[in-house]
Amino acid sequence: MRKPVRLVSFGLFMALLLLFAAPATAAPPSQASDTGPDLVGALVASPPTYYESFRKDFGDWETNDEVDFQTYFATGAYHIRVDAEETLVWAASSWGIANFYAEVDAFYVAGPEDNSFGISFRQQDNGDMYIYSASTDGYFRLVKLEGGEFISIVDWTQTAVVETGPDAVNRIAVLADGASITLFINDQVVDEVEDTSFTSGWLGLSASAPGEGGIEVAFDDMRVWDLDAMPEEPVVVTTLVPTEEPAPTETPEVVVTPEPVTVDVSARLEEVRSEPLEFSDDFRSDNGRWGLSESDSAVVSVANRTLQIEVFEANWMNWSVNDGANPANFLIEADVTRVEGDPNTEYGILFRLQDGDNFYFFPIDGLGNYSLYKKQNGEWTALIPWTASEEIDIEDGAINRMAVLAEDTLLTLLINDSAVAQIEDETFASGRLALAAGTFDQAPLTAQFDNVDIWILVEGETPERPTAESLAPPDPDAMDQVAALHDTDPDQSDQFLRATGRWPIEPTESSTFSISRALRIEVTEPQLLAWTINQDVSPADFLVEVDGWVDEAQTEGEYGIIIRRQDADNYYLYAISGDGFFGFWKRVGGEWETVIPWSNTDAIDPEPGAINRPGVLAIGNRITLMLNDTPLTTLVDDTFATGDIGLVAGSFDATPVNVGFDDFALWDLTE
Questions:
Q1: pLDDT score at 465
Q2: Cis link prior to 48 (omega < 30° from 0)?
Q3: How much is the pLDDT for 56?
Q4: C-alpha distances in angstroms, 578 versus 41, 122, 367, 514, 670?
Q5: From CA 616, how far away is CA 631, in angstroms rounded?
Q6: Cα-trace Rg, the chain
Q7: Residue 156: helix, strand or coil by DSSP?
Q8: Dist CA 589 CA 583 (whole Å)
Q9: Quick check: 175 and 188 in contact, CB under 8 A?
């Protein structure tokens, strides 16, 4: 039935070219014990040590486009395609582990049903490993690769447990505990053996074309429990990020909708997910981005590599607020699990949060229902009453992927990548994002959240900023003076090798500063400017220049130079944005006045992470703006004659914004 195959590995190991022959007849399965299922049942009631949703490529798994095989991410899964006959391909993860239970869902995509797919484990640095495989035509086997040769542990064995045919989906699982190896298919034990060849190593995935090529298999929702690192008691971490005041909740009536309205937003989701993430968190540690708290009624903590909300009081709700933007339009996704507590509890996504009395809340419960509520001025309103949905996995410990796509007044609710409802409401236009859990009549409840992804959406096409009208040409005398100054040494220069006290770097609630081979400013609140002021000079006339950039792949923002600063409410601001615009403003008595609106210029390098060098020549009331050694314009303004010089970073609607500065130079021309 099975033919020889050759091996192709990638990731951590070199390719091998090996042949082996499978037996002509299948051996009967060995007698399986009850130990494996009992242990697995206890494990899956707790969160996994590792979880891979394969929803996007984070660099943990290889992607390849070779003649004989391809590996890639698509439609929320990891695909292995094998086009060459008699070829086995495996991919090693970064998970090195000894004793474990691992499971993964495998989908037949294309090609002959005489295929194989499964889990490789305890892989050694020299390529030795175990490989457990099943096939779409109803077989399974276990082999070990040792010293360049295949050794059969369980021969190809036919079983009715495997779902066969082109629509087949099979859950493949291995329990490896010491020498004992228990094999599962679709939550049923198919065999149990003992082997002491390898005691630990890397986990991976495999697929093969034993005969004809062209097979393709997709993998999704891989979960791994480390037997040697069972979950510890959660550690409550206290940060300065506030959690909104929790509020008691009422138990809404469950209304079953016989035929819930469904919508297809798959194309829109694909479009949004192709854009850079605003924020992503797998909660490997507390990064200070979520509000954590502890009270007699509830505890919010980072525990077991999740954000965990424990509620001890009946009819109580608690949430944790993300410290990022107050977006209007966004997509937020999160894995949600009820770890402990009555199924008649709620947990999900809270969005467009204004305060403790004004927000939307999209929860699910353990009975298979979802709802959408808004709380306005302290009063609850059911926009979508509790409604049954087959998309919700109601098994104890099940992970459900919840999402909200909010675009203006249109709100789309998704569960496990299926849009379950869409509704329009204009009560709240923007606000904070949060994760929430609550009880009704029964307490306690423990809910966990993981793999949070947030995209901030731009409303349609970004409009082109207008070119300023009547933009004055640069003063020829100023251009000559700049050229002459460049032939001399500046009065002050700074490569920001280390903090010297010249530039204050004390953090605020909305910004942080650091100096180490560059001056870095991070802004964490939307529509905010953060600056640091030079402590050594306050010239009247000067030429100042500095290199600036917004970190590549980070949120778009602005950066530039503050000049002739009197105080926080009186100064000039020259700013550029990474997408090719510049502008000049003055702040007088706390009010902004636009001198040059955001304007196009070819002098800016708009590439992500590109370094641009803004400069200002100020002599009397004549101010010449420079960019990358190119004079842009000379303007006349006598509001401020002298003052401080600072470097500034700013955010638009999305955060955080990370800006760097280097090679500061100042020529003091004050007489």
A1: 47
A2: no
A3: 63
A4: 53, 47, 49, 21, 32
A5: 9
A6: 30
A7: strand
A8: 20
A9: no
Q: Containing H/E element for 476?
A: helix 476-486
**Residues 170, 106: Cα–Cα separation, whole Å:** 5
pLDDT for 166 equals 77
Cα distance between residue 355 and residue 432, in whole Å: 9
Say what the pLDDT of residue 498 is: 82
d(CA 617, CA 245): 51
Cα separation, 372 vs 387, whole angstroms: 9
pLDDT value at position 28?
31
| Contact between residue 127 and residue 14 where contact means Cβ atoms under 8 Å apart | yes
Encode pLDDT of 73-131 as tens digits: 876 678 999 888 878 888 888 788 999 999 999 988 888 888 899 999 999 988 899 99
**Whether 505 contacts 532, CB under 8 Å:** yes
> In the block, which residue shows the tokens 């276990």?
142
Angle at CA of residue 192, ends 187 and 193, nearest 5°: 150
Beta strands in 247-378 (DSSP E): 279-281, 293-294, 298-303, 306-311, 317-321, 330-341, 346-355, 358-364, 369-376
How far apart are the C-alpha atoms of 319 and 435, rounded to whole Å? 5
| Diameter over CA atoms, the chain | 98
How many angstroms separate the CA atoms of 47 and 224, rounded? 9
Distance between CA atoms of residues 403 and 630, nearest Å: 47
Which tokens sit at 314?
């009946």
CA-nearest of 182, 162, 284 to 227 is: 182
pLDDT of residue 127: 85
**CB 118 within 8 Å of CB 136:** no
Report the candidate in 109, 120, 113 with the shortest Cα–Cα distance to residue 217: 109
Strand ranges (E), 468-528? 492-494, 511-515, 519-523
CA pair distance 614, 465, nearest whole angstrom: 19
Q: Look-up: residue for tokens 């020529």?
A: 667
Q: What backbone torsions phi and psi does residue 120 show, to the nearest 5 degrees?
A: -100, 145
Closest CA to 333 of 272, 258, 263, 392: 272
In the numeric block, which tokens belong to residue 246?
A: 């929790």
Question: From CA 402, how far away is CA 447, in angstroms rounded?
Answer: 13
Residues of the chain with pLDDT under 70: 1-36, 45, 55-58, 75-76, 230-262, 324-325, 458-470, 552-554
The token duo for 238 is 């206290």
Reading the block at residue 116, the tokens are 């194989």
Residues paired with residue 238 on neighbouring β-strands, in sequence order = none
In angstroms, rounded to a whole number, what is the distance separating the alpha carbons of residues 81 and 59?
Answer: 19
Q: List CB contacts of 267: < 8 A, sequence separation 6 or more.
A: none
Specify the pTM: 0.39
CB atoms within 10 A of CB 333: 22
Task: Please give, one letter per residue, the 3-state secondary structure of 26-86.
Answer: CCCCCCCCCHHHHHHHHHCCCCCCEEECCCCCCCCCCCEECCCEEEEEECCEEEEEECCCC
Whether the bond into 631 is cis, omega within 30 of 0 = no
